[in-house]
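Students often ask why we bother encoding 3D structure as a string. The short answer is that it lets us treat folding as translation between two languages. Here is a chain of 119 residues written in the first language.
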Amino acid sequence: MPDTLARYDGVTALVCDTDGPPIATAQDALDLIGAALSQAEVVVVPAARFDDAFFTLRTGLAGEIMQKFVNYQLRLVIIGDLSRHLESSSALRALVHESNRGQHIWFVADLDELGARLR
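And here it is in the second language, the structure alphabet:
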């Protein structure tokens, strides 16, 4: 299934396909940003699309990717089960908690949770 546009309470989101290309570099994130810029305010990416290095904070990949979305004023929503990653990293748990308190980067379980957050 290709990436699709969806509306949640007046907010347009680019919902990325689970089977799309992996996001393993900052350039991969920029490609996604380029696809979304003129058509969406939110980019929803399945957690499974991210390389494991994203969830290992010491690599710096998560910070680099997240900063790109903030710079381009696009909200990034990472959707799906993160339990495997969260179990092994208190730093990642803290990042998820703090990100979810803000407006730019969210980690949600599913599209229903995203819809509720956008209301």
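Translate back mentally: Strands lie at 4-8, 11-15, 42-46, 75-79, 105-108. Keep this in mind for the problem set.
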